[in-house]
Structure formats: C-alpha cells, structure tokens
Queue: 2 jobs
Job 1
Amino acid sequence: MKRFQGNPILKPILKHAWEARATFNAAVLYVGGRVHILYRAVGNDGISRLGYASSLDGYHIEERLSSPVFEPGNYTGKDGCEDPRLTLLDEQCIMAYTALRDRVSNAHQIALTSIATDDFINKRWNWGERSIPFAGVRNKDAAILPRKVSGRYVMFHRIDPDICIAYSDDLHHWSDIKAITGPMLRKWDCLKVGAAGPPIEISEGWLFIYHGVNFERVYRLGVLLLDKDDPERVLYRSESPILEPTTDYERFGRVPNVVFSCGAILMDDQLLIYYGGADTVLCVATYDLSELIL
Ligand code: BMA
C-alpha cells in the first residue's frame, strides 16, 4: 500500500476539549463528489465522541466541524461511542459503532443507528433511534453489508476472537449468528480478527478489509474476498498483511503499533483506506485495485 505523504490527515486539536487527545478510526462515505469522514475523537475527559470532516480529493481536509456530531447516550454507551462504520442502503445511512457502557470494566457492545442520507451529507444531524442488537454480549467491529441478501440485512461483528455474521429483516432482530473466519494459527492475526469497514463490492465479490492482532498486540490489516451472493463464504484470504505499523505515527501514540481501519472508498480504481495510527491520528493509504487482486 502507498501511504499518503501528507499523513496524518487529522490530528487532535488541543483547544477543543472533546478532541484534544485523539482523532482516529473513521467511517467514510464517498457521496456527491465529496469524501465524508466521521471520526472517533477522544477528549480530555477520556470519552469518545464522533467528529466530522470532509475532503474533495480524499486526502486534503477542507472542512472540519468544531463540535461533535454524535455523542454517547445512556443505555447505548454512556462512556463512549467508538469506531463508527457507515453503510449506504435504502436512502439511509446506517451506522454501526461500539458503545462503551462502563469504562472501568470495559463493558462494551455494538450499537446501531441511522440517518437519512440527505441529512447526513447536508450536516443535519438528525440521527434516528439507537438500538443494541445483542444486549449484554461483549462484541465490537460491527459493519452492515451495503446490500441485502435474500431480502435480509447482513451484519458482520466480532465475538472474540472471530469475525461473525448475523441477519435481520428489520435491523432490530438479528438471527443466524455464526463465525465465518477466525485467527490463523502462528500468523500475524493469531489472537483475534475483526472487520475494518463495510465490505466493498468489486467484480470478483466483496472486498473485505479486516484487522488482525497477534500476541504482542500489534494491529495489522489484511484482506478477504467474500462470495457476492453468499457473504459467509470466504473465497480468498491474504497470507500476509496489506498494512502494518512501521512509521512513527503508527508505532508511537496512545496505543503503540496499531493500524486500525473502519472504512475505505473506491475512487476510480484506487482503494483509499482510512486508518487510525497508534490510536491517536487519522491516516490514509491507497492500493491500486489491480495489484490487490492477483
Ligand atoms: C480495538 C478498538 C479500537 C482500537 C484498537 C487498538 O479494540 O478499541 O478502537 O483502535 O482496539 O487499540
């Protein structure tokens, strides 16, 4: 992958208390010729909220709002909303995120909400109701497939240590939960794996970027290819990571040796992967799609 020379593209802003410590792991949407970036921000109070920035070319930030656009609710995570993933489906923009209920015990679960696409791109933050798909189950890394399969919504999520799938008719009741892949023995992702952003449709299937963690707790990114009509079927898995922490902004920060992604976009045949470096800053790296699928 090619890292953008101007990385990091977003850094914390000290004079904004809500985003003074970290601005990283971001959901991205490419709509109306603009890349919309919804990033996780950690404030001086240690709480995660979501901020908004946008870019025309995907690399240079032209706009960044000075207040958060999504904040923790009560039951759905009073101690933080982390790692958003956005999916466009049926004129709405569905957001999956990690809701932290209690920082001390690290009680977290996944949560869902949505917003009309038109509201989102025009920055009217009319978020809908928030729901908890699996109350009481510790899981993370949820992302909704941008297309229904046999009339049902499809969600990927991570119940430690596997990437799991689940299906729903209405985004509220989820069933048929099963693991679709797990850590690889003695490899770079031997401890646990989780979805990066929602899969991206390409001619060969669903391109699914994921993160893998090893026993030294180094976070790297790898890639899977899923069957277009049956996204439970893994057709390909990269033996080696496609991105690993090597630069200073990936090795040193609040959590060292982390590259962690919550979203990517396709611009012409370039895949732009947005990722957090060391849980502190937001970066972008690109891949020529023709090189990725060999
Ligand atoms: C995961 C999430 C991410 C974070 C990663 C590395 O569990 O909390 O937000 O980037 O750990 O610390």
Job 2
Amino acid sequence: MKRGKLIYYEGGEGCGKSIQSRLMKDYLIGKGIQVINTREPGGTPLSEKVRGILLDPKSDEVEPWSEVLLFQSSRALLYHNLIIPKLKKGITVQQDRGRDSSIAYQGYGRGGNLDLIKKLNILSTFGYEPDLAFIIDISPEKGLEKQLSADRMSLDGLEFHRKVNKGYLEIAKENPNNYIVIPYIENGLEEMHEMMKFHVDKLFKF
Ligand code: TYD
C-alpha cells in the first residue's frame, strides 16, 4: 500500500495555520482523499496532557532542555501511536505544528543547540519527514496582536518571536524542495488557501 502524505502547517503565533489546515482537509476530502488533522503538542490523550503542562503560564519551573524534551516526548508518542499507523494505512496526515516548531522556538528562539534539536527530531518522528510543509510568514507584531489565548509561549517578548520567525525562514531556505513560504494576508484566508492548494494539487497530481 502507498503511504499517506504528511503535510505540515507551521508559522509564528496567530498566523492562521489551524484554519488553513481545516480548509485543506475539507478540500482533500472533496477530492476523495482520506485525511486526518492533528496538532502538536498534543494529538493523543497523553500528549494532550503534556500540552497542558507546556502551555500553562504557571509552568514557570520549565528550563530550556526540559522544554525541548517535553515537546519531543509528546511528538514521539503522537508519531508512534497515531501518525505512523495512519500513514501506513495510506491516510494523509496534516499536522498543525510539528518538528520545525522545535527548531524555530527552542532552537532559534531560545538559543538551543540546533544540531541536537534536529537529532532529537529524527528520534521523535522515527525519521518520517513531511512531503510538503507550509510556513506562514506573519510579522510578530501582527501575530501577537491576533493571538487569542495567552499561552506560556506567546507571553515571551517580541524579540523572542522575531527570532522564531527568522528561524522559520531559515528552515524554508534549507528545504527548498518541499517547504513553501506563504505570506500572511490580512483578511486573505481564501487567497492564502488558493496559494496552498496549488502546491497540494502538485503533490497529489490532481
Ligand atoms: P498553539 O496553540 O499550537 O500555537 P498557535 O496558537 O500559535 O497555533 O500552541 C503551541 C505553542 O507551542 C506555540 O507557542 C509554539 C510552541 N511550540 C514550541 O515551542 N515547540 C514545539 O516543538 C511545538 C510543537 C510547539
């Protein structure tokens, strides 16, 4: 059986990845593709508990490497228990954040060792890589203004989120074949969806 496709939606706070992945899910279902959406951190019962710890503004004793490892442990569970079995059944999986968030936030944002984080990513994804990844490029000023819930990460300052965004653009540069930067367009949900559809159509050869 052909393995399902793995598609990532990434970007800074408030960039609208979640809504875009939902729109794309509807589009793919309309095309007869079996697809599930999931998110990181989270996606399985235990990973959702880890998400609660990670995003709680009261989790103030988290130190940088413990943060990295909590995200990675949530990811390993999600890949092992949900993503890999679905892909093996030929089901497409769309991820609202994935391994690149660790590189952008814990690496570029917090200054964690990039090589080590990339190695941990290989471990926690069991070597699975996205077939296609969208990086939505939003200015941190705009993104933080749009952020609805104040989770622990979005409480970090503008300077931190600037580094995160710079990180995302670096990741896109390092992966020119399957990483696509989509500019955030104010009130441009449909326009952004159209841009993404172009690449999804190519991936599925519609
Ligand atoms: P989420 O609600 O998905 O963010 P958003 O509201 O921007 O969609 O919250 C996830 C937060 O966790 C977000 O601030 C990014 C952060 N994060 C990391 O720092 N590292 C990671 O590896 C992942 C998956 C997320």
